[in-house]
Amino acid sequence: MAHFLSIEEQTPKQLSDLLQMTGILKSSRGQRENKPLLNQVWAMIFNKPSTRTRVSFEVGIRELGGSVMFLSQNEIQLGRGEPIVDTARVLGRMVQGAVIRTFSQDDIQRFAEYSQIPTINALSDQEHPCQIVADLFTIQEKRGALNEQKICFIGDGDCNVARSWIWAAEKLGLELRIAAPIEYQPGETVLSQLRNGRISVTCDPFAAAADADIIYTDVWVSMGREAESANRLADFREYQVNERLLRVANPQALVLHCLPAYRGKEITEAILEKHAKT
């Protein structure tokens, strides 16, 4: 695998191999003599703010022997309108890899093409692939076989996180239920490509959550959608992860949120705090 740009582009074997490697790397943290990124410099180009994504990548690259150069949009010429292909060509001659968090998926694809160095999508408006790999690993680690879990996504079913979940379920044959208002459900362009009959979409959050083993949610107002805040808060008011919703789920259900969380909106304070400790 030269790049990791989306879940959609991965084969089932590639995703399975990623999860297996995740377990190996986690179990050997602090004990690894092999440093695969030794003497490498990786650029982290972030056009969107980040806490967990930035910290996890910086720590990971350093633990694997590499060094990190963090570049925000305001610090490089991209912020002044330089084409992504020009930035890609220059960095491709100077660093060994890149992690990009930005708005356009096309920018990430073009960077990978023109830089010719390993490129990782750390979030775009289209997908959030690394988040979903981390979630899949967490579910597997805490609950066992992924294909035995009933996974329920509540909220904006057409956001980047939901799309990556859809492609993960399609590739790995997982049961995935998405509950979203009609206008926020996955588009026909995505749904028409699915062959996994275990992926379903509904307007009813309680039907989706019934006996679910995993309850997953994300923010209602994604970065770049701030102008829609008032409408979105009204549209999603019945899609909150709360005690009432969890009563219909598996009593041992795992609640996941990709964070940051807005307590009292997509998830209640009590539910978030209770499940943050598990």
Q: How many beta-strand elements?
A: 9
Largest sheet: 5 strands, parallel
Instruction: Give the integer mean of the pLDDT values.
Output: 95
Helix tally equals: 11
The percent range for helix content is 25-40%
- Strand coverage percent: 15-25%
Describe this structure in a few short sentences.
This protein has 278 residues and is an alpha/beta fold.
Describe the structure.
With 278 residues, the chain is α/β, with parallel strands linked by helices. It is built from eleven helices and nine strands. The chain has helices at residues 12-27, 52-63, 84-92, 105-115, 129-143, 160-172, 188-191, 205-209, 229-235, 243-246, 269-276, and strands at residues 41-46, 67-72, 97-101, 119-121, 150-154, 175-179, 199-202, 214-217, 254-257. Helix 1 packs across helix 5 (129-143). The chain is globular. The mean pLDDT is 95.
Topology:
Layout: H1 12-27, E1 41-46, H2 52-63, E2 67-72, H3 84-92, E3 97-101, H4 105-115, E4 119-121, H5 129-143, E5 150-154, H6 160-172, E6 175-179, H7 188-191, E7 199-202, H8 205-209, E8 214-217, H9 229-235, H10 243-246, E9 254-257, H11 269-276
Parallel strand pairs: 1-2, 1-3, 3-4, 5-6, 5-8, 6-7, 8-9
Record keyword descriptors for this entry.
278 residues; alpha/beta; 5-stranded parallel sheet; 4-stranded parallel sheet; 11 helices; 9 strands; 37% helix; 15% strand; globular
